[in-house]
Please model this.
Amino acid sequence: MLGLDTEEGRKKWDDKLSMMVGAVASFLIIVTVLGAVAMIYRIMQHPSPNANESVLGEIFASRMMLAATRMAILFVGLYVVLSVLIHMRRGQWLTAAGPIKVQEAVKRVTRAANLRDTQVELVLRDRQRWRRRAVELSDEVRRLEQTLAKAQEQLRKQDDDANRAK
Model:
């Protein structure tokens, strides 16, 4: 349905997801820069803070700062979700958890599976070779049995001829 049943289809989806992640990242950077510029501009427009207020208090009380923070959280969440999807699709998401190195285990299992595949192929080739040899030997046995039967028949005829001659 989605075209994920072939390697080419999976590659297309990986490319699409990568483009989406790149677009989200670019958009996030642009929004962050514009938000920072707008926030600085609005802070500069207001008169200097009162003696009771600090500069940080002014910045964190700004509506623009709250809006920019909310947007950043939203876009970072979306970016994380898309990147997790890409990593899961490519099988790269979990590579280590504490002392366990998943990537090394996967490499060992892959090597062992490849070795087993090679061994199975060799055994199948040997099996075919032995099967051909068994057929050849069976044919030779049949031929030899026929030759033996003919020889026995000739011996019987010679014995019969020798018995008649006496």
Summary: The longest strand covers residues 96-97. The CA atoms of residues 17 and 86 lie 7 Å apart. The helical segments are 7-45, 55-61, 63-90, 102-165.
